[in-house]
């Protein structure tokens, strides 16, 4: 607890500073609420409008987590497959890149036709957003395996599976976490976008409605919700990373000290 | 045109004007494009730049003065003005609301009472339920028996393929496209059922500052678009051709058919193209208030003006 | 069990010929040492036996079975310790047996203790000194079930005493389990003290320049190091290497 | 040339196969053009509509390249700053994540209001999309610098600048390229999205117009254009990577052979 | 130029005390060797002198100037070659002078040739044998302008002849440039052959157990290795280390 406070005060103070600047700028230039509300107005709305949006948050969280879980699983599985079957890799790597260039607005009608208006098409959108950074980072991680260690594994007769799980996988973990963090950052946004595909609930819906009735302060409440969710999510992934890669941290201590 | 360009060179500078559409170009905008292509703006000393709003939407851009003019609709303006967004309607494009609820003919939805037990695809705004309720109530049908699904950005035809029975469309564009595709639709226009919902959509807007500080520019602008729409009323086919040439990426056939459908509707029963009536603004706001959809005071007199229409 | 045969092995890296027609064998339970100039191709020989790379020509067999391009038949200690940075010392030692398909922590702990590393079971490799890492790599290769052990300069980073302890320990293991050992070293005394036979490699392209059968009986003691015959043999190998 | 053919036939044949499957599915299930045109129809439109979209392509390419160049520069500079000034890193890292969670639809009007309808707001959108993967990947690359080499550099008295340019930077290059590739993939899509911010030209505009007049075949021409651009772009980055990291490739040869 | 003083140095890693009250000095132009058991703290001493880590207590000075936490005053060869995989051999050798602020390719090429590595200028480290890598690390440390050179087991991976050549070469450089050299080795013969003075380190926690001043005059030749006095001293150090 104490250490979170100790490490957290810096970013928090920067954030506070930004908010104060924003508040001051808003008041000095007298920017109208509908254009850009100041933080205190957003805060007001966040307090008073709690019942308006509380239901939406849970829905978005559920969607994000489902999409992220499936997305990173797909990302990892694809990376592992492509890495262990180099022929597949040559053939399918370009398809991965293509998958990132199908505009959602085009995909949306197809997804709706095929899967209706339920959860599935939304999860697919999040998966599409999440899996790519994981796959690319993981593949690059696998490729950079230390040669001396690979040498040793091969000489002692480790099977491909053993080489993979005992060497390439742990060695790629830092890179994988890099991908997981990027994907995590995108996943909340992905969920919000996917809610535009038609959804009864969710921060995305709350935001579009607020936006279409010119309630800019509510739009900003939505943005802050999205940001808080993303940061929390990122922090959780970073904590897991720290825990999984603790050997690295211990290494760092003795050298940077 | 050679004459005009000479003229331009002579007095040198045209006033630069930024214009934002409500969404992508469609035949609602014909008069605007004709005014530009036929040099009506130039004759008024204006150089109009037409922008797509993208995700942004025109209202705030116009309100903030980033664009001097734009296209919006009475529903938006009503809600916007309640939030103190200083936009004003300066002329309506169509005299009557051409939107309505469309469904496939084979589904047999003949009147609002048939909505019971059907699925409506919308975007989840409270106003939708209120409108459907307003249509159904007189027929003693219960809006609670309609299933609402949020279909987000999906287009009408896609939505009908799946899960959705009826949706809210502008006939001039989507309805005409259905005709072209040979899809038979049933249509319930809002204004066939309650007069209060016969609001102006779409309309040209500017901001209050323009009106108070540059009334001459506003006047010149409205004059030019008036001429544009008059042109479209008189010569629909020629107008469609000019419009298609200006926006070649649109489907020519659709533009032509849509133009034929919409041209008579620009002016219809009014004395003059673009004229707006106070009661229309009042009625819709009243209806909104009845359904407690407005949070704030709306002054219909301030929301529009006929002052700039050519005399 | 453990009869290794190399015949007419040649190997080039690109344009540089490294090994030229190298043939030798290691008998069952024999301790054979390879000495030769730096860069002559000793480690390359191990890589060939381990199946990491294939020779350009020649055959390699273990108990009659082809070893070229097949792996897992030798237990191996590389020249550079190659410890896994994310594994503790104990887990690093266990790696070789994990690969061979069985874990035996008890034995590993015993080996760690014998190597003078007790207390470091849960340390990570970067917390160890150079010689300690080398000892970990050494016991990792011992904790593996294969019948032939290939050790690439296992004691080069050790002081004389630790080295001597390790040597004696290696001999006791060798005697107990009757494994064949192929050993690379630059230390001629070490080669003489440990081996049944010494193979002297020439400089690039390397071939077997001389084979010396060590006449000393076992068990050998430290006194041997000072005996005349030992000195004589040492000088002989010296000269062989030089010429 | 020959090697491109040799390496390219696999992905090309997979692509061809997919196209053929799609064509067949389209014909068998008699899917209407407006819903999902078959490749041959798209091809027809691509041939005949050339004059419609040729002007748009150049505009999008220019936008993409400008945005990408600025985006990765920003990404690298931010990563370098944050890495070399750990205090800044603690304070600003969360802001980076936040920057990825401002929905474009909210940002769009603000950007237009602040910067007008010119190139600038569009470039800002692409930069926002591109810089993040570069920064994250680069930072993670820097952190994983080999400890023995860092040791050596410090012992010989290398200045922080030398440690950075002679060790951390080259060591992080594979990770950096990983980020550059992810960013490159996103940049074309980013340009298309940014064109929706109000633009006269570009594939994004072409696509929205086609979509709003229900010309699905043109929409797919646009998608294919986007894909071809992205792939070309990715291939160029990958080629540069190969060239810059040629020491790595040489290493690979002797071990995987 | 080049007078190094360590006084009352102690250093612990976590709970393990590694160095305990270590004091010694290296005079200008002197060649001092440190021997001691594996894991006793020899490399740690170098890290302290190089300013990589700070001692828990004690002072380190070079020509009177504090060395604690200051870097760049020594030229250094680490125990593990630490070559940069993306640099060719030539560029690796040039690294140390680059860091010191000057590039001198001519000198580097000469050093590469003397180390018997001509033809490998453009090779990458992974294409070299263990001993060749060590030689690259060695000449990299020579190609640097500092007045004191710290070498951590520079020749442990070399065969006796390459080693002897390198030793003689090191001595010639030492004589020519009048640098101070601090040298770590496990090879007592090497220590005796090269040094003016030998410091014997005890096991953990390490302290200076004994200091031996070598009486042999220079230049020293190979014959020295076989002389009685040499043998006697060797045995003496042997016993010092053992007890
Ligand atoms: N980063 C570290 N963290 C914790 N302990 C360390 C670290 N580095 C070294 N040690 C410990 O310090 C002691 C001395 O290590 P050092 O490397 O100085 O030994 P050395 O005398 O060079 O041995 P060798 O001859 O084997 O290289 C060892 O016991 C080692 O475990
Ligand atoms: N991957 C490689 N690519 C190119 N050449 C290589 C490669 N590996 C080794 N060589 C070359 O092969 C020769 C023999 O190397 P090897 O490692 O077998 O020597 P060694 O006898 O073990 O030497 P040392 O005693 O120094 O370890 C060297 O000249 C080296 O440059
Ligand atoms: Mg070797
Ligand atoms: Mg050491």
TrEMBL record, chains A, D:
<keyword id="KW-0813">Transport</keyword>
<feature type="transmembrane region" description="Helical">
    <location>
        <begin position="219"/>
        <end position="240"/>
    </location>
</feature>
<feature type="domain" description="ABC transmembrane type-1">
    <location>
        <begin position="57"/>
        <end position="237"/>
    </location>
</feature>
<keyword id="KW-0812">Transmembrane</keyword>
<dbReference type="InterPro" id="IPR000515">
    <property type="entry name" value="MetI-like"/>
</dbReference>
<dbReference type="InterPro" id="IPR035906">
    <property type="entry name" value="MetI-like_sf"/>
</dbReference>
<feature type="transmembrane region" description="Helical">
    <location>
        <begin position="123"/>
        <end position="142"/>
    </location>
</feature>
<keyword id="KW-1003">Cell membrane</keyword>
<dbReference type="Pfam" id="PF00528">
    <property type="entry name" value="BPD_transp_1"/>
</dbReference>
<feature type="transmembrane region" description="Helical">
    <location>
        <begin position="61"/>
        <end position="83"/>
    </location>
</feature>
<comment type="similarity">
    <text>Belongs to the binding-protein-dependent transport system permease family.</text>
</comment>
<protein>
    <submittedName>
        <fullName>ABC transporter permease</fullName>
    </submittedName>
</protein>
<keyword id="KW-0472">Membrane</keyword>
<feature type="transmembrane region" description="Helical">
    <location>
        <begin position="95"/>
        <end position="117"/>
    </location>
</feature>
<keyword id="KW-1133">Transmembrane helix</keyword>
Automatic annotation (TrEMBL), chains C, E:
<dbReference type="InterPro" id="IPR017871">
    <property type="entry name" value="ABC_transporter-like_CS"/>
</dbReference>
<dbReference type="Pfam" id="PF00005">
    <property type="entry name" value="ABC_tran"/>
</dbReference>
<keyword id="KW-0067">ATP-binding</keyword>
<dbReference type="GO" id="GO:0005524">
    <property type="term" value="F:ATP binding"/>
</dbReference>
<keyword id="KW-0813">Transport</keyword>
<feature type="domain" description="ABC transporter">
    <location>
        <begin position="4"/>
        <end position="228"/>
    </location>
</feature>
<protein>
    <submittedName>
        <fullName>ABC transporter ATP-binding protein</fullName>
    </submittedName>
</protein>
<dbReference type="InterPro" id="IPR027417">
    <property type="entry name" value="P-loop_NTPase"/>
</dbReference>
<keyword id="KW-0547">Nucleotide-binding</keyword>
<dbReference type="InterPro" id="IPR050166">
    <property type="entry name" value="ABC_transporter_ATP-bind"/>
</dbReference>
<dbReference type="InterPro" id="IPR003439">
    <property type="entry name" value="ABC_transporter-like_ATP-bd"/>
</dbReference>
<dbReference type="InterPro" id="IPR003593">
    <property type="entry name" value="AAA+_ATPase"/>
</dbReference>
